[in-house]
Backbone:
């Protein structure tokens, strides 16, 4: 028998409805063909997991394109159209045995609320109902009926902070082969809840830890084939925003229905407990001034690039400048003009630049005088992990400004700094600081754990969990902004 052939690839980005800066093609790391497979093989990524599943089954993987970007504003329609055209063209010509897609599930374009659903539906229209289509999504995906109807098995990350990207891709890939082998006849039971989780939503802590344990036990006992609990990205102003709980039975639905009904009821009952609180920035900085055994690595809750915010908030920079004393600290600010001015002045030059606060309005821009200690373009890095260990990324134009003990890292594009290698790529050692700011709320806590004490701080801004301050329109009604009385309904989908 000739080796089976699997189509994989696509686009992965998490969007933020209220970030006005569209995500363009130059924000993506793009790989194609054999190079895409070679680069993803062995990495803790969804594509890496799909490749591992295929190679374990002796199958070939074809990746027409893989576009990956960090979170940000909606993706330009032309970028999504380019990816979709490449995937559909491959599906038309390829005569593939199955399709397994490493996507995010929480992307937007100006024209589309659910581009991933559109991609999966159009692939389904080409290959017909018999060819298995599976997908791996982020836990923060906005999962729609369109996706669930067109996709045979959807696997979501089971961890937040996310550590199981590769394992999720493996689940999606293995499901496609199980279907091809006749070992799996997926029957989906799912429920939607119009609510948001807002901060107390790590999967290694209550209440989500208990739900995941219950779901995992059902899989291990053979009652269901696979489960996912999606806690949607909170800044998507889309119809049907909320939670999706799902389980696949193998050939039968009863146990999956019972499990989903129980998990959905438990999730709805836990809605108040899923809203977290965070320590204040000032109290954390006061601790840093007094001295802590290890650096404080602070996640700027209000301007999380990891959640799609612009990364140019000056709230933390103002607070550090207003301390009245200097401590070694590193702060990242997205500011293309500031980068250009520093690069024009050159390394070693003294400059005065006004940075940040162009899109984030929680604090005004800051005028700094300092020395340009590093500058460049295209610095590459490999995530030290554990989250996304081995993942490659690059930093576009940048300049590092030193003002006394303060290091301000200016970049033309936003980054979440979820891995310390971002700083190191620009010549800044985070372990030598007393305070390091990241633009992440969860994921940095895994990758900086070896360096310092990781704390997400309550700061205002576009990605603050004070969602009442955001201009939601079409996503409502949802808890906690609306007073709702919900009895979860379990729905079924058979192939
Ligand atoms: Zn996520």
Residues:
């Amino acid at each position: 028998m000739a080796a089976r052939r699997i189509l994989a690839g696509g686009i992965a980005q998490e969007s933020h409805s209220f970030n006005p800066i569209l995500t363009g093609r130059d924000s993506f790391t793009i790989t194609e063909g054999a190079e895409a497979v070679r680069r993803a093989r062995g990495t803790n990524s969804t594509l890496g997991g799909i490749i591992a599943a295929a190679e374990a089954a002796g199958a070939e993987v074809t990746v027409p394109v893989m576009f990956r970007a960090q979170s940000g504003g909606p993706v330009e329609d032309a970028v999504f159209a380019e990816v979709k055209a490449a995937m559909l063209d491959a599906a038309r010509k390829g005569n593939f045995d199955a399709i397994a897609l490493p996507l995010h599930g929480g992307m937007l374009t100006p024209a589309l609320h659910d581009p991933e659903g559109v991609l999966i539906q159009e692939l389904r229209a080409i290959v017909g109902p018999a060819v298995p289509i599976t997908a791996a999504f982020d836990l923060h995906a906005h999962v729609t009926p369109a996706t669930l109807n067109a996709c045979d098995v959807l696997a979501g990350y089971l961890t937040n902070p996310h550590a199981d990207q590769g394992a999720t891709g493996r689940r999606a890939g293995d499901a496609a082969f199980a279907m091809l082998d006749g070992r799996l006849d997926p029957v989906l039971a799912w429920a939607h809840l119009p609510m948001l989780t807002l901060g107390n939503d790590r999967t290694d802590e209550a209440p989500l830890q208990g739900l995941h344990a219950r779901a995992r036990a059902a899989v291990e006992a053979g009652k269901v084939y696979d489960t996912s609990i999606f806690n949607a990205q909170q800044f998507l102003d889309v119809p049907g925003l909320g939670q999706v709980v799902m389980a696949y039975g193998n050939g039968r639905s009863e146990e999956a229905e019972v499990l989903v009904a129980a998990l959905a009821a438990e999730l709805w009952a836990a809605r108040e407990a899923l809203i977290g609180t965070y320590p204040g920035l000032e109290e954390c900085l006061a601790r840093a001034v007094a001295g802590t055994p290890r650096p404080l690595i602070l996640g700027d809750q209000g301007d999380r690039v990891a959640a799609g915010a612009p990364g140019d908030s000056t709230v933390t920079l103002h607070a550090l400048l207003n301390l009245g004393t200097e401590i070694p600290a590193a702060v990242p600010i997205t500011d293309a003009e500031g980068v250009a001015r520093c690069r024009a002045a050159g390394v070693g030059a003294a400059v005065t630049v006004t940075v940040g606060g162009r899109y984030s309005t929680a604090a005004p821009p800051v005028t700094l005088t300092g020395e340009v200690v590093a500058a460049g373009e295209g610095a590459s890095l490999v995530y030290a992990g554990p989250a996304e260990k081995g993942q490659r990324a690059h930093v576009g134009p940048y300049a590092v400004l030193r003002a006394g003990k303060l290091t301000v890292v200016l970049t033309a594009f936003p980054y979440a700094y979820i891995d310390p290698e971002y700083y190191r790529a620009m010549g800044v050692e985070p372990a030598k600081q007393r305070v390091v700011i990241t633009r992440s709320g969860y994921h940095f806590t895994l990758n900086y754990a070896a360096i310092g004490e990781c704390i997400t701080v309550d700061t205002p801004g576009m990605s603050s969990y004070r969602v009442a301050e955001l201009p939601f329109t079409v996503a409502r009604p949802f808890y906690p902004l609306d007073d709702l009385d919900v009895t979860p309904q379990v729905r079924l989908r058979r192939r």
In short: Residues 138-140, 162 surround zinc ion (CB under 6 Å).
